[in-house]
Amino acid sequence: MQNLKLSAALLLTIFTLFNSCQTKKPLYMLSTDSPDGKIKVAFTLNEAGEPLYAVNYNNQPVVLPSSMGFDLEGQPALAKDFEVTSGKRLHNFSQPWEMPWGEKRMVENNYNQSIIQLTEKSGLHRILFIIFMVYNDGLGFRYIVPPQPNINELLITEENTQFNMAGDYKTFWGPGDWDIYEHLYTTSNINQINAFKYVNNGLAQSHIPNNAVNTPVTMITENGVHLSLHEANLTNYSDMTLLVDTTNHRFKSCLVGSDNHTYKVKVHTPCYTPWRT
Length: 277
Description:
1 helix; Beta-galactosidase, Chain A, domain 5; 47% strand; five-stranded antiparallel sheet
């Protein structure tokens, strides 16, 4: 999958939607399918105005409804009380891409795309965009916080993107070490992940503060579907590790922090997060 970047046309679409004065009927569900129709991503809002997404493959759930949003310093969390003020499926994009190196020279960059504008119904009336790009072999989504009156600078204390797995998948994982990647991988089910077993391993630089895994983390479902969680276009943002809820087979983003700050990301608007893939 090509390194995911917004095109100039997409940026124009985003800010056109943002600056539009037309009131649009709230949209509570939007489905984005892969070009071959095998992967289906459903975006919804629940009764609390919280954004969620879910993923099916071949009509079987792979990722159950999972929450999205941020905790912020100096402002309320950007995570609920939303309404959908615009939801649009953009046309299919298909164009060959030449890789600088790798197993294949030419890769077909073929995906379907959706962009959703969320606006808080009360309080600061902040605006958040979520963009989905769905390929035949995977998907990516990212958050965009556009320039707006109530947000000039974001101090993100945590990103709360969940990956709520539909089963106790066989998992190939390494610990969510904030300093290094020099750990051997372990193979276990999700409910057996224990990153703390890597603590006190004698490595010179190692910091494992949570039961979390590094990305990429790869899984195999009971039906033999292979999937991997990772990130792309990591620019001016903290690395993502994944907290593990072993009981509910759930991963949640946990950004790498620092003892020097109470926040994990400091960025001005417009803010583009890395792609969650």
